[in-house]
Amino acid sequence: MTHPAPPASLRERKKVRTRQALAETAAALFGERGFDATPLDDLLDAVEVSRRTFFRYYRSKEDVALTAVKELWSVFLEVLAEEPGTGPLRDVFRDALLTALARMDGDWHPRFATTVRLTADSPALEGHSLLHCAEVQAETRRLLGRPDDLELRLLIEFCVATWRSAVDDWLPTCAPGELPDHVRRAFAAMEAGLHLEA
Amino acid sequence: MTHPAPPASLRERKKVRTRQALAETAAALFGERGFDATPLDDLLDAVEVSRRTFFRYYRSKEDVALTAVKELWSVFLEVLAEEPGTGPLRDVFRDALLTALARMDGDWHPRFATTVRLTADSPALEGHSLLHCAEVQAETRRLLGRPDDLELRLLIEFCVATWRSAVDDWLPTCAPGELPDHVRRAFAAMEAGLHLEA
DNA sequence: GAAGAAAGTGCCACTCAGTGGCATTTGCGT
DNA sequence: ACGCAAATGCCACTGAGTGGCACTTTCTTC
């Protein structure tokens, strides 16, 4: 089971519904009016949840806005954990990324596109996004059992940077099916990039 | 002249002094009590500057805390601009970094060490630091005249990531003269990192 | 060197994110 | 049905950052 079975408990189901409602409404509201221009209270009113409750679900305003991104990386770590993979590690990471991408359901894609656009013009979001990438990198190193290996650390940094570059190239169009191509192109350019001459 | 000559105007001199006082006192205060645990007002009281004035000098509390880091990157961009360099670009970047490092005066080193330590245990600072790296990267691409070249973008991402890894390795000791060695080691490990096998 | 322009500063009141405490409700098990 | 624990809501608070306006300091010009 990739996703945990829907929990029987009513209490749990309500929690999940609230979480989703917050994330989805956040994407919609922020997408319309912009992240910085939308006070958190507007989101709380829309979802009819008190300030205090919100902060029991999400750590910050940025946190809820980045839900789609965090979902992707979470799946990425799952994929990496379940199939160790062999051969060049950067191919392993690229493929894990592509697999994770393929696993996201149709509902996810527009939310992700919205999030990426938001991130592009809100430094606060960009900062939190970079911070989250750093956490994922640390988690990946731990997963591979060599958290202190310099070369491994560099490789992971490179791969995440490559991913971000791919997303950046994809950003202007945000065409639904084209992200994997951008990812493949970017990863294919790593070697040449590293050996660029002035 | 690498640094602009001391401005004749009294007005300008006072501004510079206030800026420095804020940066230095910030490093001292934050270094003692921690970044998150030190309210901005404590800094303002210490320097005897009003809240309003502070925000005319620095954009945020994080901004003033990261002064030492920003100084380094600023010198890095200067170095890069004045000597285009030839050969493998990653060597050019590494050497520009080392040159910038060598140009910093003795006063800078302890402030930088403090800043790095602060950054390591304050997510807010880490986020702003990563954000600043991203700005420097964009500026570097612009400087080289190819802001949209994917391979160049990747190379710059890789180099900055490598720098950050080097600083991270240096962090536990923070031994004054050892940073350049860590930088050289990290850059030397790029190739092997990219070709790691699972 | 005095007068006025311009830049810099301080104070006050405001918005908004995030937190702690405590009472209240709501779903859960017996 | 009852009691327990979890979840929620409400209130008041801190702390960062901003806008407006009055006041002081420096620069300029005559």
UniProtKB/TrEMBL annotation, chains A, B:
> Which keywords appear in this protein's UniProt record, sorted alphabetically?
DNA-binding, Transcription, Transcription regulation
All copies of domain HTH tetR-type, residue ranges: 16-76
Q: Which InterPro entries match?
A: Homeodomain-like_sf, HTH-type_TetR-like_transc_reg, HTH_TetR, MftR_C
Name the record gives this protein: TetR family transcriptional regulator
Q: Which organism is it from?
A: Nocardiopsis suaedae
DNA-binding region, residue range(s): 39-58
Gene3D superfamilies to which the protein is assigned, alphabetical: Homeodomain-like, Tetracycline Repressor, domain 2
